[in-house]
Write a structure and sequence with these properties.
This protein is mainly alpha-helical and about 290 residues long. Helices cover about 75% and strands about 0% of the residues. InterPro entries: ARM-like, ARM-rpt_dom, ARM-type_fold.
């Protein structure tokens, strides 16, 4: 009954929400060490509905429930993992302080352990989505994700196995989000562990898929702005800019605009390099 009530959570005020969340968390703890799957499932569904896309996380997290969610996530039963994952997915919309609570409880390792063995595309997409949100946080949170080595392992898995289109889109958003807020050295490291090859593959082979190509072009635009020489010298050898140049008249307005921005930056970079070489030659002649 309580779970059904949560499907129309817009009519529930904060006091009632707090009471409902407290009831669901209490039911979660009474699941008999996760033996009563129906209680677990209904409780998690209720919490997920009440905190959908990060709503009222402060209420949920005031109960210090993340350790129990991680414990649930580490169960071998996939249905129990999914119950926890649905709530962690919501928490991933949180602010820096709320994301810190996730990182403090080894959520990265738990999520990656599931990623390595799951064949459920929805689960894999959700996990990559959570990683993408975690690298949207502050610099320390981004570094924790990089230091974990998990992104490096994901790129290795991508090289060995064919990712579905949805998984590749989520992987691209991890790159784009990190390029948006990360420091130069973090972006350089990301390229070194596999992001560069992934970007090149997308540029050369996925130009008709706006869902993955658009964030790819955003990433390239940011990479040129922040670590121009390092990225441009590698990308030019792979014919990346030759391909992007052909997309300046794309039917997709967003792809055309970003393609034009990138080629303009690339041309400006080449002009600057040519000028630098001329100045160096003049100095040598003097």
């Amino acid at each position: 009954m309580f779970t059904n009530l949560c499907t129309n959570e817009s009519n529930i005020d904060s006091i009632k929400k707090r009471s409902l969340i407290e009831i669901f968390l209490s039911c979660l703890e009474k699941g008999g060490e996760f033996q009563d799957k129906e209680i677990i499932r209904d409780s998690c569904n209720g919490i997920h509905a009440l905190t959908n896309k990060g709503q009222d996380l402060d209420i949920l997290l005031s109960y210090e429930c993340i350790p129990n969610l991680i414990l649930l996530l580490n169960q071998e039963d996939e249905s129990l993992q999914n119950c926890s994952l649905s709530i962690i997915w919501n928490i991933a919309f949180g602010d820096d302080q709320q994301l810190d609570l996730l990182l403090q409880e080894s959520v990265l390792e738990s999520l990656f352990n599931i990623f390595k063995i799951s064949n459920n595309e929805e689960v894999l997409v959700d996990i990559l989505f959570i990683f993408a949100n975690l690298v949207c946080g502050n610099l320390n949170q981004i570094q924790q994700v990089l230091d974990s080595g998990i992104l490096s392992e994901i790129f290795k898995i991508h090289r060995k196995e064919k990712f579905s289109n949805r998984l590749q889109i989520e992987l691209m958003w991890i790159i784009t989000n990190l390029c948006t807020v990360g420091e130069d050295y973090q972006m350089g490291y990301l390229l070194d562990i596999g992001a560069f090859d992934f970007i090149v593959n997308v540029v050369l082979n996925y130009s008709l898929d706006k869902n993955i190509y658009y964030p790819c072009l955003i990433s390239i635009n940011l990479l040129i702005q922040k670590i121009g020489k390092q990225f441009i010298s590698q990308a030019n050898k792979k014919q990346v800019f030759n391909k992007i140049e052909t997309l300046q008249d794309s039917e997709s307005n967003s792809i055309a605009i970003y393609s034009q921005k990138i080629i303009e930056q690339f041309d400006n970079y080449n002009k600057k390099m040519n000028l630098d070489q001329i100045f160096e030659k003049d100095e040598l002649d003097i």
